[in-house]
Design brief:
The protein is of the alpha+beta class and about 90 residues long. It is built from four helices and three strands. The chain has a domain at about 35-85. A hairpin with a 2-residue loop joins β2 (about 65) and β3. The relative contact order is 0.12.
């Protein structure tokens, strides 16, 4: 019977490698993920209740509902505005 034992040094080397991998592959949510209220979303989009509801209902702007209120990711609002920007026509 052949037993391969791990030495204390092997263990610490493995631990160091695992820590390096965990630093590269972080399981933490991104810090930039900021949820906005409907009021804040309307201000950013310069729209009213009806338009924001339309965006939510037709899937243009995803939302989360918690406690009877809707919340929107700021990154998704920024992306929507970027996709719909107008180029100046000369």
């Amino acid at each position: 019977m052949n037993l391969d034992l791990m030495t204390k040094e092997d263990f610490f080397e493995l631990k160091s490698l695992l820590n390096q991998v965990l630093e590269k592959v972080s399981l933490k949510p991104e810090q930039s993920k900021k949820f906005l209220t409907s009021k804040q979303a309307k201000q950013l989009l310069n729209c009213g209740d009806t338009t924001l509801c339309k965006y939510r209902m037709n899937g243009t702007l995803p939302s989360s509902k918690f406690g009877g209120r809707y919340y929107y990711l700021q990154d998704e609002i920024n992306e929507l505005m970027y996709k719909n920007r107008l180029m100046n026509a000369a």
